Amino acid sequence: MDNSIFLAKFWGWYLIIFFLILSFNPKRIKQIFADLKDEKFLIISSLIAIVVGLINILFHNIWEPNWKFIITLIGWISLYIGLSLFIFPKKTVALLEFINIKLVQIIYMLLFFIGLFLLNIVYGIVPI
Predict the structure, then answer these.
(1) CA distance 49 to 33
(2) Domain count of the chain?
(3) Neighbours of 90 (CB within 10 A)
(4) pLDDT digits (tens, 9 = 90+) for 62-77
C-alpha cells in the first residue's frame, strides 16, 4: 500500500474519531490541558508527538500542491508541537490553551472536515 494512502486513512480516521470524542465529551479537552500541567504527562505527550511527527515526515515528506501536502503538514505540525512542548513547556501549553479557548469551534470543525476530505480521497465516496 502506498504511504500516502495509508497515512490518509490513518489521519482521516484519527481526526474523525478525535472530533467525535471531543463532541460527545467536551470535558475531555479540559482534562488534557489539566494533565499537561503534570510534568510526566507533558514529557510523554511531547515525546509521542515528536515520534509521530518524525515517522510521518520520514515516510511522507511530499511538498506537492495536492492532498498529500495536508499529510506532510500534519507531520510537521506534530513535530513542531512536540518539540515546543519539550523545549518550552509552559509557554507552549499557555499558547495552546489560548488558541483552544479562542478558536475551539473553528479548530474542531477544521479537523472534522480535513478528516472527511482525507477519507474521501482514500475511499472515493464523493468524486472530486
Answers:
(1) 15
(2) 1
(3) 11
(4) 999 999 999 999 999 9
